[in-house]
Automatic annotation (TrEMBL):
Keywords: Membrane, TPR repeat, Transmembrane, Transmembrane helix. This is Tetratricopeptide repeat protein. The chain crosses the membrane at residues 88-108. TPR repeats lie at residues 181-214. Residues 52-79 are annotated as: Disordered. InterPro entries: Anti_sigma_zinc_sf, TPR-like_helical_dom_sf, TPR_rpt, Znf_put.
Length: 301
């Protein structure tokens, strides 16, 4: 595809759905491999948002509390370690060949290497980029309304296309690996991004039944419960996650947010300062500093 020729016209046609089906699919395949074109597409959507700033001002802000990036699940359990031994030197080649065969078999059976799972995660990343670029700050219902013809139509259509394909890929992978907490967690994360926390809760709960002690999954279920209005449940789950081994940094941040909302200022300060100490350059570091500064300025009760 010659995207250098009339690229702006091509992007405009894609956004208003006037591209023929074959060309649209070809362009989407190109977007997956071309960061420049994807950046231009997002920039065009940003311009659309700016042109409709009155509508954009009414869009709800992105919630501060959010799920951890991923489910830290080892693909094969314990890593395979091969040690040299003088007594086994003559059998070294055979051992390595057997190990390679076992490793390849494990990779083929692992959900991490499922092609639909990998593509679903790639599409989920693109879906998050669209939202993080500020082109679409709407709930799931708002996205569908946007695609129906409001000023957000271009952004809404792109979001819907990505969302439908992401959901299809991850559900297909889950059908092949029904016991994978990794895929269930990814589906929960997808529904969070898609503005459906009640659906996210279902998938996170299923994942927790498989890995009940995983602090990442506890954090993610807490984030979904919070966005669904279940603040007490969210705090209980976050405290459970905090007391597990190696809790995610998001748990520390999220507890700081909740303690601030419930007026427990000292606990808020402790958690947000700890978060900044551990992750001073994270995407949420600025928000943590803002919350701390606001707490300092607030008069004592």
């Amino acid at each position: 595809m010659d995207t250098n020729h009339d690229r702006e016209e091509l992007i405009a046609s894609y956004l208003d759905r006037s591209l023929p089906e074959a060309e649209r699919r070809e362009f989407e395949e190109h977007l997956a491999a071309c960061d420049d074109c994807l950046s231009e597409l997002i920039a065009a959507q940003t311009e659309l948002r700016e042109l409709t700033s009155k509508d954009a001002a009414d869009a709800p802000p992105r919630p501060a509390i959010g799920p951890a990036e991923g489910h830290r699940e080892s693909p094969f359990g314990s890593p395979l370690a091969l040690r040299r031994s003088r007594r086994l030197a003559s059998a070294g080649a055979a051992i390595l060949a057997l190990a390679a065969a076992l490793l390849l078999t494990a990779m083929m059976q692992s959900s991490r290497f499922d092609p639909d799972y990998r593509e679903g995660i790639h599409l989920l990343g693109r879906l998050m980029e669209v939202r993080d670029a500020g082109t679409l700050k709407l709930s799931g219902d708002g996205v569908r309304a946007a695609a129906a013809g409001t000023a957000y139509r271009g952004a809404g259509l792109l979001h819907l296309d990505l969302a439908l394909e992401t959901d299809k890929r991850l559900e297909r992978a889950l059908a092949r690996h029904p016991g994978s907490a990794r895929i269930l967690n990814a589906l929960g994360h997808f529904h969070m991004v898609d503005g459906q926390p009640e659906m996210a809760e279902i998938y996170y709960e299923r994942a927790l039944r498989i890995s009940p002690d995983d602090p990442v999954l506890l954090n993610n279920l807490a984030a979904a419960a919070y966005r669904h209005g279940e603040t007490e449940t969210a705090q209980r789950l976050l405290l459970e996650a905090e007391h597990r081994n190696d809790p995610p940094l998001e748990t520390i941040f999220n507890l700081g947010v909740l303690y601030g909302e419930t007026g427990q200022r000292e606990l808020q300060r402790v958690h947000l300062e700890r978060y900044l100490e551990l992750a001073p350059h994270s995407p949420w570091a600025g928000e943590a500093r803002r919350l701390l500064e606001a707490a300092r300025r607030r008069p004592a009760a």
